[in-house]
Design goal:
Shape: globular
CATH superfamily of the largest domain: Glycogen Phosphorylase B
CATH topology of the largest domain: Rossmann fold
Radius of gyration: 22 Å
CATH class of the largest domain: Alpha Beta
Largest sheet: 10 strands, mixed
């Protein structure tokens, strides 16, 4: 077996990710690449006046990272434009926020072609290639055009939208046809997989058999659901470490006898933060006895500040949290602690453990590893309660959580009350079942399932 070559928009430098402030993609891929002595290729995050295709290399921990700089026009049209103003809102069911501009489409195609030109010399005959996420849907097609006959898989980390929504994209058919240049296309959940099946059969005139083989556009590929997992053992080690212990003690002191509800999210309209605040407000309004006895800590890490929709959601959350605190706060109690900064994973592990409730209520999410992190950080003798949106991919695996409709204030408010009142025996029983799933369906299982399915596909001629 050759090396694993991972291609993604951004990469994480080689090193120890245990305490780093990295997302689910970086955690998962770092673990996979360490196992396969792999190469991770992507954008450096830097811009240059003229695109040269010059690669920069770093090596550490058995992983080679290769990055390339883009032009500022690439960043604006490909990244801020098509990826984050067109595809991201559409795939998260926010068609009202999707911007369809030809320059975005052109930039997306141009950068995918530039990435393919740059990574092509790194590919050796026995390598297998794993392309990640919505930024790089056409990458398989571009590599095939450059003579790459290796096995190539694609994994989508975000939801796949319902067919009627997806067809609002002007070039929707071209984008799906590009996916048929891969050997394997994977999704986070059965829900996303089903939505893609519907497009193939109803819009593209193709077929999908019982084994997940899809035929359309004159080609046959393998489809599957591969729910991403946590780097569970590494995270649990971090949760027992000195940094996590220090943060747990720090948080416990700050509780002052109160109980904490904790939410940790990237600052994004898909995370349902405004709806979460309003549901918490509903709980406070309906439960006067909880005043001064509970508070919500919401960590919301800023992102994509150049995209107007993100500027708007930040302003709205500032207003909503301020209004709720103004209405309910007392001289020594603030009902919402709203924090716009990032924390390391080992710091978060300590914060999670101090929380009586983990509130994970996105409006639409591919998976959401925060739910799994919260569970993995808990004290087995006295665990907290996970409240989880039914629209997160994690809900398919985590039925023992309190699963809620994040659009319903009453539903989330009722779950908060139930979670805070839940007897210890029930909390332990639910946590044990959730923790068994976190351990069993971890990042290693995810990697092995996807790689095995990819290597089972026969190599095909490029072109």
């Amino acid at each position: 077996m050759g090396r694993l070559i991972v291609i993604s928009n951004r990469v994480s430098p080689p090193g120890d990710e245990t305490g780093a402030s990295v997302g689910g993609l970086a955690m998962a891929l770092s673990a996979a690449l360490r196992e396969h002595n792999g190469v991770w290729f992507g954008w450096s995050g830097r811009t240059t006046e003229t695109f040269t295709g010059q690669l920069s290399f770093q090596r550490g921990g058995g992983v080679t990272v290769a990055t390339v700089d883009l032009e500022d026009q690439d960043r604006q049209e490909y990244y801020n434009g098509y990826a984050n103003r067109t595809l991201w809102p559409l795939f998260h069911y926010r068609i009202d926020l999707s911007a369809y501009e030809r320059s975005f489409d052109e930039g997306y195609a141009r950068v995918n072609a530039r990435f393919a030109d740059t990574v092509r010399p790194l590919v050796e005959p026995q390598d297998f290639i794993w392309v990640h996420d919505y930024h790089l849907i056409p990458m398989g097609r571009e590599l095939r055009r450059r003579g790459v006959g290796n096995r190539i898989g694609f994994f989508l980390h975000i939801p796949w939208p319902a067919r009627r929504l997806f067809t609002t994209l002007p070039n929707h058919r071209e984008l799906v046809e590009a996916l048929f240049d891969y050997d394997l296309v994977g999704f986070q959940s059965e829900d996303a997989l089903s939505a893609f099946h519907d497009y193939v059969t109803q819009e593209a005139g193709g077929t999908v058999d019982a084994d997940g083989q899809a035929t359309a556009f004159g080609r046959t590929i393998q489809l599957g659901a591969f729910p991403i997992g946590l780097d569970a053992e590494t995270f649990m080690e971090a949760a027992e470490g000195e940094v996590a212990r220090g943060w747990r003690e720090r948080m416990q002191k700050s509780l002052a006898g109160r109980r904490m509800i904790v939410g940790v999210d990237r600052l994004d309209y898909s995370k349902g933060l405004e709806e979460r605040f309003l549901a918490y407000e509903e709980y406070l309004a309906r439960t006067p006895a909880a005043h001064e006895q509970v508070f919500l800590l919401q960590v919301a890490t800023p992102s994509r500040d150049e995209v107007p929709a993100y500027q708007e959601i930040r302003a709205r959350l500032d207003g909503v949290s301020g209004r709720i605190n103004g209405a309910f706060a007392t001289a020594d109690w603030v009902p919402i602690r709203y924090v716009n900064r990032s924390y390391r994973r080992d710091e978060l592990a300590g914060i999670y453990r101090a929380g009586a409730i983990g509130l994970v209520t996105p409006l639409r999410d591919g998976m959401n590893l925060v739910a799994k992190e919260y569970v993995a950080a808990q004290d087995p003798e006295d665990p907290g309660v996970l409240i989880l949106s039914q629209f997160a991919g994690a809900a398919e695996q985590m039925a023992e959580a309190l699963v809620v409709n994040p659009f319903s204030r009453e539903d989330v408010s009722d779950a908060i009350r139930r979670g805070l009142e839940m007897p210890r025996a029930e909390r332990v029983r639910r946590w044990e079942a959730l923790m068994d799933g976190v351990r069993t369906h971890d990042v290693v299982a995810w990697r092995d399932a996807f790689v095995a399915a990819l290597l089972a596909r026969p190599e095909r001629a490029a072109g």
